[in-house]
Amino acid sequence: MLLALFALAATALAAVNREQLDVVLNKTGVLRVSGEQLGMALLDQETGMRGYALSGDAADLGPFRDGREQEEQLYATMIPLLEDYPQIRGQLERARLSATAWRTQVAEPAITKTRDAGPEAAQQLLNQMDGKQRFDSARTELATLQEQILTERNRAVDDVRSSSNQLVVLLIAAGLVIVVLGAGLVVMINRMVTVPVTQLAAQVRNVARGAYDADISVTGAPELASLGRDVNTMRRQIAADLREVRRAREAVEAINQQLQAQASELTRSNRDLEQFAYVASHDLQEPLRKVASFCQLLQRRYAGQLDERADQYILFAVDGAQRMQRLINDLLAFSRIGRNTSGFEPVSLDAVMAEVAGQVNPEDRFGAEAVTWSELPTVSGEEALLVTLLANLVGNSLKFRRPDVPPRIEVSARRDGDSWEITVADNGIGIEAEFAEKIFIIFQRLHPKDAYPGTGMGLAIAKKIVEYHGGRIWVDATRTEGAAILFALPVTDNTGAATLPVPTQHKELTA
């Protein structure tokens, strides 16, 4: 408010000072110069008149005429500037009348006399009219005019000086007020803003160093106090979240320790189970071979010598021993997958299918076109395991064919991103959607063993081989006719393109 008053007063003084300067520069200053020039114009007229009266030469009248024109111009300049100065305006009129009287009574008659009668007659006329006294009277009036103009100018200058001094004093006072207010504002800001902000920053740094339970309190301006409360609320939330994180971390660490212990136990258990399966398979082979051999011996030697029931019992014993041998062999093969490894190398699946031909050999029963494949890629893996994989899948399709319908099995491949997707599709009895995952479980059978022979481990072995090669295996649940089992194997640097050993698009499976 105080500064506003100072500003208003300074504005008013500046306006007054500007008006006073205008008076000095554009009025009294111009009047003073014009008054001096008016005296010089009158003197030029007197000089020109006397020169012409002495010489009679018309050229000597030039100063007279010029002075007369200049006098009229100066009157035209000064009269508008004297509206606010009636006293000076009256003196100007008296000086003008005096100059006019000198011209009409002295100068112009002398000029006329010189032109008509010559310079001597003009000189006599001037001596008779006492022209010098009249000229001095006109100059005296002009001198009085100059004094009045000078007095008015000096008063205007004093006014300018006074208003300027007042403006300077006002500005100095305003500067002192600004300094005092600035110092007070600095003190107030320091007390209400700087110190509270510094305290808040120190408390925030303390929290940042880990003191999450330390309360944050801020004094000062209401806004800073509100900010301090918000920061403290945020600190409490962070502290609560950190406590939750600590509890969660402790729980995770406990779970990790438990999982590590379970993983170690599981590793040991798997190792023991693999060792057990391998040893059990070997250890069971010898007594089982004896049982099977003696049962077969009984069947050959005493067939028909005992009653029909005894022959049936012997047949059951031989069949059970043979099935037990197949189960043990499959279990042994299942336990060996991934344990006895020879290392991965590029394997052509076309070549693998050619080898599968020698194992399943469907040509004699179903014809040469029962199994076909096209443009299979080269993948990275173990050739023996991949042969077992495709032999199990092709054999599975041949086993679950539809009665009285010639089986057709197609093996194809396509690139899907970073994987090769291999499809083994048939026209057999198919697989219902609810059993799509069950068929890969070990010893899992969907049909009685009397209807379809086997141990129920073929697809479990296939699944383990695919997963050992870093892939996955599944059933196409959308297929409505027959079954389609798919497995995906990764594309590696040395298996980026399919290897095509034959130019034809389809290759027949032959023995």
From TrEMBL:
Signal peptide: none annotated. InterPro entries: CHASE3, HAMP_dom, HATPase_C_sf, HATPase_dom, His_kinase_dom, HisK_dim/P_dom, HisK_dim/P_sf, Sensor_kinase/Photoreceptor. It comes from the Bacteria. Its EC number is 2.7.13.3. It is an enzyme of class 2 (transferase). Residues 279-493 form the Histidine kinase domain. It is found in: Cell membrane. One of its GO terms (molecular function) is phosphorelay sensor kinase activity. Residues 238-276 form a coiled coil. It catalyses: ATP + protein L-histidine = ADP + protein N-phospho-L-histidine. Keywords: Coiled coil, Kinase, Membrane, Phosphoprotein, Transferase, Transmembrane, Transmembrane helix, Two-component regulatory system. It holds the Pfam family HisKA. The chain crosses the membrane at residues 167-189. GO terms for cellular component: plasma membrane. Its main location: membrane. Residues 191-243 form the HAMP domain. CDD domains: HAMP, HisKA. PANTHER family: PAC DOMAIN-CONTAINING PROTEIN, PHYTOCHROME-LIKE PROTEIN CPH1. This is histidine kinase.
